[in-house]
Design brief:
3 helical TM bundles of succinate and fumarate reductases; mainly alpha; elongated
């Protein structure tokens, strides 16, 4: 049947008034970093294939890899790798039915975010 009282019902929250939570942002970032890792991996594979092809082609690929854009992509890939790894560990913790209450979920979320930046900085310093 048709709803004759359609105009009196409240509207659902819209994205313009919705306040994202840490858990939703970290979930979205896990998906984004997983896909972004593909860009870095493809760039490394291209660089290795160029090394196996010819000196001229490798010079081009090496120039791209050592350019500012290439270095930023590699730095982003290092961060994405650490973030994605820590988020995976967080999901393993959740799979064991631990840390599911809201305060623990927020602590784990912040641990993933902060830990990924700290581990990225340590990786850059060591390498």
């Amino acid at each position: 049947m048709a709803d004759v009282n359609r105009g009196n019902r409240p509207l659902s929250p819209h994205l313009s008034i919705y306040r994202p939570q840490l858990t939703s942002i970290t979930s979205i970032l896990t998906r984004v970093t997983g896909n972004a890792l593909l860009v870095g991996a493809l760039l490394v594979v291209w660089w290795l294939l160029a090394a196996a092809t010819s000196a001229e082609y490798f010079a081009l690929a090496n120039w791209v890899m050592t350019s500012l854009l290439g270095k930023l992509i590699m730095l982003g890939s290092i961060w994405a790798l650490w973030y994605h790894t820590l988020a995976g560990v967080r999901h393993l913790i959740w799979d064991n039915a631990m840390g599911l209450d809201l305060p623990a979920a927020y602590r784990l979320g912040w641990a993933v975010v902060i830990g990924s930046f700290v581990l990225t900085a340590l990786t850059v310093i060591v390498l």
